Amino acid sequence: MHPADGVADRASSRPILVASDIYRSYGTRRALRALSFTLASGRVLGFLGPNGAGKTTAIRVLTTVLEPTSGRFEVDGIGSEEPIRIRRRIGVLPEGLGFPRHTSGAEYLTYYGQLFGRRQADARQVSRELLEMVGMSARGDSLIETYSHGMRQRLGIARALVNDPRVVFLDEPTLGLDPRGQQELLEMIRTIAQERDAGVVLSSHLLSEIEGICDDVVIMNQGQIVAKGSVTDVLGQAASDGTTERTVRVRVPVDQVDAAAARIAAMDGATVTDLDPRGWVSVQVGSSAASATDADRNRVLETLIASGIPILGFEVAGGRLQDVFLQLTAEAIA
Amino acid sequence: MTATAAPAERAVADDRSDRPAWWLVFRQELEELWVGGKALYLLILFGILISITAFLLATNSELSLTPPRTMIIVMIHTSMTFGLFIGLVIASESISGERERATLEPLLLAPADHRQIVFGKYLAALSPWPIAYLYTIPYVITLAQGDLALWPALAWGAILGTLTAIAFTGIGMLVSLWSTSSRTSLFVGLLIYIVAQLPPQLPGEFLATTAGAVVQAIDPLEAARQFLQQGFIDVKIVDELWPLLYAPIAVTIGILGVLFLYAAPRLGLEGGPTRSRRGAGSEA
């Protein structure tokens, strides 16, 4: 098996980013170990990991800002030994990007468009298009120092697209944005992958956003990959040991938590494992992973409905990326 | 937010820019320096210092303590001393300041040779010097009181001042390239500036030794001072004065060599002279 096989192997579109066995050290400390994965064009890859997992280092290596200690990668068929050619084909929104204070958004994009090899008139045209795309055409001529944080993030994304890149790297793009801003940005990221046929690498702490828009996921911990594949594959991979799939969580009104727990405790093959003051009741169903069926989970709901207890929420533990993330990173630490 | 605009054309795989990267960076830096006000603030400070110097000289002149020719040389040397300070301060902060403001990373991500990025910033840091020198000229003309040395001294001042500005701005850029924080680079820059003022203050016994002669010879600011002093006060001919400039010119070339051949290709997110050469070379 090729070391980079993995994430997008089943994608019909061609690989646009191939990382093969990349290591990166800072002195004696290894920040990245054996980083290998593939990203296909038109797909969004979520880069997950706790603080210090090596996500930002990985992005900096893949964007040629840092040199790998060993290993190599290719972007659009160009090897990592040609960083300047790679830079022409990638767009990057670094974490905590700063901006010049005395420049307007339109001038900023035009400047970078020219730095990326566009003629001035072309760079201006692209600048206008990108400002419109990120919903900032009305503020394009205002100084960047007057922009809100959300507007700067959008401008940063527009800057990452000035060269119409093959691969876009976004490091924590929704950090510090309000929920609406986050949602709008995520929609835009999805659109970038689909309409521009670009591969997108999205690093984020917000697992729900990764789960919502990513096709593939790479989970990192302590500098190495602990899981990779499509989101469905990774969810399945974590659930295959059966430790989480047996647990369901039901949300009921806060004043009926005790009543709900008592009803469930009276059931055969169901055990209440946790009560949350916000109304969540955790229940383990079946005696083993194999014996936990959809019918078992449905019986919990039927019991509550039959008792007249309103159900405000329901979820299967292990069915969310957050559960997988916590499980895999905890295992790696252990 | 609207739907994505269709790309004007697929990835800019080839450089079709009508401007070289160094020119783009230079223009952008000029805007930040002059529109942002930093260069103007430093020039205002320069103007105050030059005005005070001119006032003191004029006062002495009224008491007939200082001849006009000496005042010309003192004013030109003062202009060089304060003018190179502006370049040193701006250069010392140019890269390390971008590191602090997190504006360096996007520049490093541009497909430009890092030497061009550093060159653009270097030229911008040099830009206040000619303005500062032009600002000094009316004061020198006023104090010259028709002395015949005025215009030759101004011409040599421009040449020597440019030499010192090139050298000290280059030193400032080196300090900035190797510093992570602008506070550190400004402190080191200031220290170098103070050291450059030291040779005339050193004891005569030391200056008479070989080491003392070397210290005087390699300091471009001291060499410029000696050149003006000996050329216009001691009235030596130019042929006798050229040797004074050999060492400073060699030092300046050395500084520029280290800057553009060694340090600039290693420009990175973090300071320090030991980085690998990620940004150098052609695309081929």
Oligomer: heterodimer
Distance between the termini of chain A: 28 Å
- Give, in order, the helices and strands of chain A: EEEHEEHEHHHEHEHEEHEHEEHEH
The computed structural class of chain A is: alpha/beta
Number of strands of chain B: 0
Tell me the major beta sheet of chain B: none
Question: What are the SSEs and their pairings?
Answer:
The complex is a heterodimer of chains A (334) and B (284).
Chain A: E1 15-26, E2 29-40, E3 44-48, H1 55-62, E4 70-75, E5 78-79, H2 83-87, E6 90-93, H3 105-115, H4 120-133, H5 149-160, E7 167-171, H6 179-196, E8 199-203, H7 207-213, E9 216-221, E10 224-230, H8 231-239, E11 247-251, H9 257-265, E12 270-275, E13 280-285, H10 294-306, E14 313-316, H11 321-333
Parallel strand pairs in A: 3-8, 3-9, 6-7, 7-8
Antiparallel strand pairs in A: 1-2, 1-4, 4-5, 9-10, 11-13, 11-14, 12-13
Helix pairs in contact in A: 3-4, 8-11
Chain B: H1 21-35, H2 38-62, H3 68-101, H4 104-108, H5 114-126, H6 128-144, H7 150-177, H8 182-197, H9 204-208, H10 210-218, H11 220-233, H12 238-263
Helix pairs in contact in B: 1-5, 2-3, 2-6, 3-5, 3-6, 3-7, 3-8, 3-11, 5-7, 6-7, 7-8, 7-11, 7-12, 11-12
How would you characterize the overall build of this protein?
- The complex is a heterodimer of chains A (334) and B (284).
- With 334 residues, chain A is an alpha/beta fold.
- Chain A has helices at 55-62, 83-87, 105-115, 120-133, 149-160, 179-196, 207-213, 231-239, 257-265, 294-306, 321-333; strands at residues 15-26, 29-40, 44-48, 70-75, 78-79, 90-93, 167-171, 199-203, 216-221, 224-230, 247-251, 270-275, 280-285, 313-316.
- In chain A, the strands form three sheets. Chain A has a six-stranded mixed sheet, with helices on both faces. Chain A has a four-stranded antiparallel sheet with strand order 2-1-4-5.
- Chain A is globular.
- Residues 1-11 of chain A have low confidence and may be disordered.
- Chain B contains twelve helices and no strands.
- Chain B has helices spanning 21-35, 38-62, 68-101, 104-108, 114-126, 128-144, 150-177, 182-197, 204-208, 210-218, 220-233, 238-263.
- Chain B is globular and about 65 Å long.
- Chains A and B meet through helix 2, helix 3, helix 4 and helix 6 of A and helix 1 and helix 4 of B.
